[in-house]
Amino acid sequence: MEGDLPACDQDRSAVVRGDNLVFVVGPPRSGTTWVLKLLSEHPDVVAATADNLGMPSRGESMETGVFVAGLSSNDIRARFKALSQANPGKMIVEKTPVHLLHVDRIVDTFPSAKLVLVQRSGIDTVASILAVGRSKDAWWKDAPWQADAACRLWNRYYEASLKCRVEHEPLMVQYEDLRVDPLYHTTRLLNLLGLDAFLVRAIVDKCEGGRNIPIKGVFRKGKVGAYRDVMSDEDVATFREICG
C-alpha cells in the first residue's frame, strides 16, 4: 500500500499518478486560455509550456500539444515529473484545446489528474472561430473561415465534451457564467482544485480584458452573443442546420 512506502517513493508515485496536475480542455475559442491564465496567476500554480516540458518551442503560444506530439506515455510522464520536481509543492496546469479529443489518454497516463472542461455557447464559439479564420493577420493560420467547416469542427469538440462529461466527470467552467461573475466562479474553481482563493480579486484583475495574454488577437471582445457581430444570416442558418 502507498502508506507503507518511504516518503520519497510516495512523492514519486504521486507524480506518476498526476496528483498535482490539472488539464484544461475545451473547444477552440471557448475560453480555455482565459481559464489557464486565471489559474496560472495563482502563486501555487505553474503553467506547463512546450519550453518547460522540454519540447520544441511554440513561442508565445500557451499550448503544449504534448498528447499529440508523438510522445510515448512514459516520455510524457517523465516530462511532467521533471517539471514537478523543478517546482516542488506547485500545481501544474496545462492547456491545449485539441487534448479534449484525447481525454482518455490523459486519464490513462495520469489517473489522478484533474480535468477542467470549459464550455461556451456553440454559436458564439463558431463565430469566434470564423472571426479568426477570416482575419488575414490571424495567429491561428489554418482556422476555418467558412461556416460549414467551422460548424463541423465545433460539432466534433461538442461530442467530445459530452463524452468527457459522462465518462470522466470533469470540473465545469461555463464561459458565460465566468463573464458575468468572474470573482465568484474563479473562487469556486480555485476551491474545487484545493487552492487558496485569498488573492482572487488580484488574479481576476490581472486577466481582465485579455491582459497578460501574450499572443495578440487571442482575446477579442469576449462578448456574450458576439455571433451577431460576426456571422451573416447565411452563417447562422448554416450553424442551425449543422449544429442544431
What do these coordinates show?
This protein has a 5-stranded parallel beta sheet, with helices on both faces. The chain has one domain: Rossmann fold, CATH 3.40.50. It contains 11 helices and 5 strands. Helix content is 47%, strand content 9%. By secondary structure, the protein is an alpha/beta fold. The chain is globular, with a radius of gyration of 18 Å. The N terminus is likely disordered.
Features:
five-stranded parallel beta sheet; alpha/beta; 11 helices; 47% helix; Rossmann fold
> Could you state the order of secondary-structure elements as H and E?
HEHEHEHEHHEHHHHH
* Average pLDDT number: 86
What structural category do the secondary elements indicate?
alpha/beta
Number of domains: 1
Unreliable spans are 1-11
> Helical element count?
11
CATH topology name, in short, is Rossmann fold
Explain briefly what this protein structure is.
The protein is α/β, with parallel strands linked by helices. The protein is about 45% helix and about 10% strand. It has a single domain (about 15-244), classed as P-loop containing nucleotide triphosphate hydrolases (Rossmann fold).
